[in-house]
Design goal:
single chain, alpha+beta, 13 helices, globular
Length: 597
Amino acid sequence: MKFKSGLALLVALFAISNVSKAQTVVFEGGGSSALFVEVGQAAAAYEGAGACIWSSNTVTSGSDISAVDNRPSVYGLSADIQLGKIWVVWGTGGGTCASPTAPYNIYSYMSLDSVLGDRCFFEVDTSDNHNGCIQTMTPTAGEAALQGTNYLATGSCPGTDCDSVALPSAVSSALNGKHWTVAGTDVRPEDAKFASYRILTPCGQYVYRQPFDQGLRITYGLGYQTSNAGIGTTIQEDLPGGALFTVLDFNITGNDPINTSQPVPAFQVTTVGAQPIVVVVSPAATWANVTDINTFTLTLFYQGVIGRTQDIPGGPSGANVQPVTTLVREPLSGTYNTFEYSVPNSSEFHGSQDDNNCSGSNFYSNPLHLASANGTLIRSGYGSVGGNGYAYRRRTIGTGDMTKELQAASSTDARLGYFFWSAGNAAKFTASNGKYLTVNGVDPLLNSYSSNPVSPGVLPVGSTNLGSVTFAGLQAGDYPVWSALRLVTSTTPPAGLSNVITGLGTINPTQHDYVAPSNLTVWHSHFYLQAVGSTVGSNGNVLLNVPTVGTGTAICTAPGALAEFGGDAGGANTYTQANYDFCSDFANITGLINKAN
């Protein structure tokens, strides 16, 4: 996800092309990087023999290809312009990929992150009071030409054509000027709103979270607010030329918090699967004797309390000890929030990845670049990325930058990070530039760590290794860091939603990216987030956990069973069968609720 500042407010955005009726935009949006590859491959799978794919990450001008939020104009500020890698899938109709013949379908998705995706769905634009960020799609001839990125071809091309033809003007014109209709997210919209609320709360100020032990758990604000309500300080990435992340508030009920006279849309959430977050260390040679990390040790690394390689059993010690660079995602990332409330900020440990970053009511370091809490010098003159042998926590933005920074580790620069598993996210890892660890002794991907067809810890990439991915630890309810993946739409969803769901069922048996809803045996307990006033049922029930997912025993049939809502980031693992039995045996319409890790 990239951001360009200093761009003038976009006005009179875009004329609708006179060919726009010749094709149908059935799916336009973006958000979670965890869903970027899968949704694109699903769209191509649905379109079948006529699928055409164009993808890019080379766009640098927000006036060409971007997602636009005009709401800062309320304060006389420039529009928020978001840039990210993007794919477009379209059908040939009766023509070719270069010259499609109507009628045909068009799909597009921009990779930003979960909370930004949710915001880009719920925000009510000040230019026309319609919800959804506005997609600009006016590529220059060079940008529209073959990009060669092949983001959706993690194995063989999933369509007829992958990135070998320019993006046709009829396709780009059809997408241009449209509002987003879909958000991809790996946290519930309630959790996304809570993340926005927390980051805009003064640093260190109490923030109430899910109920626990007959009371409310407390975390704290992160201090990125400005004097303009709903607008925060830009979050920076701790890399040379790194990305920036714009903080703008949004609501999921009531009126927009910036365009305050306008109601936000009613919405529905479609669960498309579940994925684990994998914990990865690099380079592999440095961590050759390390296989497992427990959640308390993870917490201490991410709090900045410890930071030596020898703090993980098997890590280099004594004269060979190294400082560890701990890589932290941005706090509006769904990946960050899933990891945050499953590990350091869980009910067990009550810490945070942003601990010790408060200076009064504001943040201390932006980008996050903090030495270990006690400032211990590990070895004088040691040439780590942090300098002088100190262990550092450093901010990355986006899954792509997290994986890139893990892969860039060297023999004198040990690193620790995490990301949502997918074949696309892991595609550039080798046996030398990173290895994943079990967490609390549980493998997130395979039946067992020792069953890895290459070597324990090697991320399974390629057609042979992917076949070994079973998610057995997740399905057993033992792996602690995972989340359901969702698509957020209006209550009258775009036609492409059902197309994508159908396509996902086609690709996943070979891609092994996630557990399909119909096969999911575990679920997270849900909870009401008082701080953001998440929806309360008309009957007074505020904590909903059913229907869950799947078919048969995965769905409660108690009279009046309520649809899923409420937060679930860090919710305790429960079995779908147990949830069903509790719901049915006690005619309980909310299911097993209000428990956190």
